[in-house]
C-alpha cells in the first residue's frame, strides 16, 4: 500500500508506524511541512494518509501557511474514502477539517498516563485484542469535539476524548501510540521546557525517562491495531 505521511516537525516522525510499514513492505512518502518547498500529493497517488503531531495549533493559519491546505487535503482524503489516521495534532487537524471545535483542554497531559477504552469499542474487531486500560504516552494541551458520526475510543482522567473512529476508515488518536524512545528523547530536547510548567498531569523529564520501557511494551498492541485497521 502507498502510505503518505504529513510530518510537521523534523524530530517527530512515524516511529513504530515506520517499523510496521517496513515489515509489511508498504511504500511511504512524506510531506515535510517544516521545509520551505513542501509538496502535497495527488489524492489518486495514495492509499493511506497519516497525520502526525507537532507543537502548533490547528487555527494558527497566519503563522503556518500550510495549515489551511493541509486541512483541505485531509477532508478530501476522507471524502475519497482513503484510510486516514491522525495522532495528537493530527487528530485535532482531522477534527478541524471535519468542522469540529479544537480548544485548550483544562489540563495538559505530558507523560505516561492510562487511557480506558470504551466497552463497546472493545467489541470492535480492530480493538478487541486490547485490555480495558493501558498506559500510553501523552503530550498535548488541546482537545477536540468529536464529529457527529464518530465513536469515542478511549478517555483519560483529565481528557474525555482520547480518540475516535469513523466507519473503520478514520482513526483519530490523541495519545502517542507510535512513539519510540528515539523520538521521545528528541522531544525532550526540543520541547522539554514545557515540562517546567505547573500541572497535575505534567511529569518530570526524569520520570518520563524512567518510564520509557512502556513504549516498547505497547508496540505489540499497536502493530496488531495497524494490521487490522489498514489491511
Put the structure in a nutshell.
This protein has about 230 residues and is of the alpha/beta class. The protein has helices at about 15-25, 65-80, 90-95, 180-190, 205-210, 215-230, and strands spanning about 1-5, 25-30, 50, 85, 100-115, 135-145, 150, 155, 165, 170-175.
If you had to describe this structure to a student in words, what would you say it looks like?
It contains six helices and ten strands; from the N terminus they run βαββαβαββββββααα. It has 231 residues and is α/β, with parallel strands linked by helices. Strands 2-1-3-4-10-9-7 form a seven-stranded mixed β-sheet, with helices on both faces. Helix 2 packs across helix 3. The chain is globular. The N and C termini lie close together (9 Å).
Strand content: 25-35%
- What string, H for helix and E for strand, traces the elements in order? EHEEHEHEEEEEEHHH
Sheet with most strands: 7 strands, mixed
Task: Specify the CATH class.
Answer: Alpha Beta
Share in helix: 25-40%
Let me know the number of strands. 10
Q: CA-to-CA gap between the ends?
A: 9 Å
Strand line-up across the major sheet: 2-1-3-4-10-9-7
Count of helical stretches: 6
SSE map:
Elements: E1 2-7, H1 16-23, E2 27-32, E3 48-51, H2 67-79, E4 83-87, H3 89-97, E5 102-117, E6 133-144, E7 151-152, E8 154-155, E9 163-166, E10 170-173, H4 181-191, H5 205-210, H6 213-230
Parallel strand pairs: 1-2, 1-3, 3-4, 4-10
Antiparallel strand pairs: 5-6, 5-8, 7-9, 9-10
Summary keywords:
single chain, Rossmann fold, alpha/beta, three-stranded antiparallel sheet, seven-stranded mixed sheet, 231 residues, 26% strand
Amino acid at each position: 500500500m502507498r502510505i503518505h505521511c504529513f510530518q510537521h516537525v523534523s524530530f517527530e516522525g512515524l516511529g513504530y508506524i515506520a517499523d510496521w510499514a517496513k515489515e509489511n513492505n508498504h511504500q511511504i512518502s512524506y510531506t515535510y511541512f517544516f521545509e520551505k518547498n513542501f509538496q502535497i500529493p495527488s489524492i489518486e497517488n495514495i492509499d493511506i494518509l497519516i497525520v502526525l503531531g507537532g507543537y502548533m495549533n490547528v487555527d494558527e493559519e497566519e503563522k503556518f501557511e500550510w495549515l489551511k491546505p493541509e486541512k483541505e487535503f485531509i477532508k478530501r482524503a476522507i471524502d475519497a474514502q482513503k484510510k486516514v489516521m491522525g495522532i495528537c495534532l493530527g487528530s485535532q487537524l482531522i477534527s478541524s477539517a471535519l468542522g469540529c471545535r479544537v480548544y485548550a483542554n483544562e489540563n495538559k497531559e505530558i507523560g505516561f498516563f492510562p487511557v480506558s477504552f470504551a466497552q463497546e469499542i472493545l467489541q470492535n474487531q480492530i480493538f478487541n485484542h486490547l485490555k480495558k486500560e493501558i498506559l500510553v504516552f501523552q503530550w498535548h494541551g488541546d482537545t477536540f469535539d468529536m464529529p457527529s458520526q464518530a465513536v469515542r475510543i478511549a478517555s483519560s482522567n483529565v481528557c474525555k476524548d482520547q480518540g475516535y473512529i469513523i466507519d473503520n476508515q478514520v482513526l483519530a488518536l490523541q495519545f502517542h501510540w507510535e512513539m519510540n524512545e528515539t523520538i521521545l528523547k528528541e522531544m525532550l530536547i526540543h520541547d522539554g521546557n514545557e515540562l517546567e510548567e505547573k500541572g497535575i498531569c505534567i511529569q518530570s523529564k526524569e520520570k518520563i525517562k524512567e518510564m520509557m520501557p512502556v513504549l516498547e511494551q505497547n508496540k505489540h498492541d499497536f502493530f496488531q491495531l495497524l494490521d487490522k485497521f489498514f489491511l
